[in-house]
Every structure is written in C-alpha cells, then in structure tokens.
Design a protein that fits this description.
By secondary structure, the chain is an alpha/beta fold. It has one domain: 3-Layer(aba) Sandwich (Rossmann fold). Helix content is 53%, strand content 14%. The protein is built from eight helices and five strands, in the order βαβαααβαβααβα. It has a five-stranded parallel sheet, sandwiched between helices. The longest helix is centred in the last third of the chain and has 19 residues. The chain is globular, with a radius of gyration of 15 Å. Bound molecules: shikimate-3-phosphate (S3P). Shikimate-3-phosphate binds next to loops.
C-alpha cells in the first residue's frame, strides 16, 4: 500500500505502452492538468525529440528531460505522461509523485512501436531493441511503480482499472 499523495501522478512504462493516451484520458476523468513530458520538451526546446537525439545525443536529451520533469514535479492536480526512459535518471524525483506503471505484452509493444517512426531508440530492429530495453529497465519500472496496471488491451478497461485501484489504494 502506498501512502503517497495521489494528486501528482506520473505514468511510467515502456515505449508503446500507451502512456500518453491513458495519461490524457485519466487527467480528464480526475479533472487534473495533463502534461506529456516529451511534448513539453519539444515545446520548450523548439526541437523534435528525434532531432535532440540526432543533434545533441542521448545524454543531452536525458539532462533536458530531468530539468523539464523537475519543473513540473512540484505542481498539484497533474498527470504527467513520462517518456519510456524517464525512470533511468530520475528515481529521486519520481519519489515525489504517485507512479502508475502500464504493463504491456512485448508483442503488443513491438506492434505499436513499428507503426511509429518517431522513436530514435527504436528506429530499426524494433523487436530486438524493444526486448533489450525491456530487460534493462523492467526492474527499475517495478521499483518505481506505486501501482501496476495491465494495459495490453482495452483503453476503457485500463482507465476503469486505474480509477478503481486509486480509490482502493489508501
Ligand atoms: C524513450 C522513449 C520516448 C522518448 C525518447 C526516449 C526511451 O518516449 O522519451 O524517444 O528511452 O524509451 P515514449 O515512451 O513515449 O516513446
């Protein structure tokens, strides 16, 4: 059971797990503000995520990601959909939020990511790279998560699951 305040929620999980869609719908249900972290980075820098990776490298992206999250994490009544790798450098910051992990089957992640060409870490060999990211990160996702939700199938069910779990986790 988590004693964390649930008015500051971060959605965490692998690329393709549905963080942006679920986060946005959840924020509507809760009447909280919604921020998509990657989108916020793109607005602040005036660059697309893939341009940041290409021109400045992953380390610079991670620094911008941390700065951006740091600015948002003190706000209240907010749902933040993080990027798949946000957990890597931000374990401390994420102690300040209630973190919902979206678990999704690997084949579903691969299917979804194959349709999207905007992920620099998954621009080719999607299946094997996704598997590597999953193996590298799964322990950290689970450690940081305050709530774990199965999100491989239906969005409506996923939202309903989150809302009832939030009500029951006190
Ligand atoms: C990343 C995931 C992306 C984005 C960046 C890095 C990652 O977000 O932040 O390309 O390290 O897994 P999504 O999880 O929304 O694809």
């Amino acid at each position: 059971m988590s004693k964390k305040n649930k008015t500051r929620i971060c959605i965490i999980g692998m690329p393709g797990s549905g963080k942006s869609t679920i986060g946005s719908l959840l924020s509507e249900k809760l009447k909280y503000r919604f921020i998509d972290l990657d989108n916020e980075i793109e607005i602040n820098t005036g660059l697309k995520i893939k341009e940041i990776f290409k021109d400045m490298g992953e380390d610079s992206f991670r620094k911008i990601e941390t700065d951006t999250l740091n600015k948002l994490i003190h706000k209240d009544r907010i749902v933040i959909s993080t990027g798949g790798g946000t957990i890597i450098k931000n374990e401390e910051i994420l102690k300040k939020s209630y973190n919902i992990l979206l678990n999704c089957k690997l084949n579903e992640l691969v299917k979804r990511a194959s349709r999207n060409k905007n992920r620099p870490l998954l621009s080719s060999n999607v299946e094997s790279k996704m598997k590597d990211l999953f193996i590298e990160r799964k322990e950290l996702y689970n450690k940081i998560a305050d709530l774990k939700i199965e999100a491989s199938t239906n969005i409506t069910e996923t939202i309903a699951d989150i809302l009832s779990s939030l009500e029951n986790d006190y």
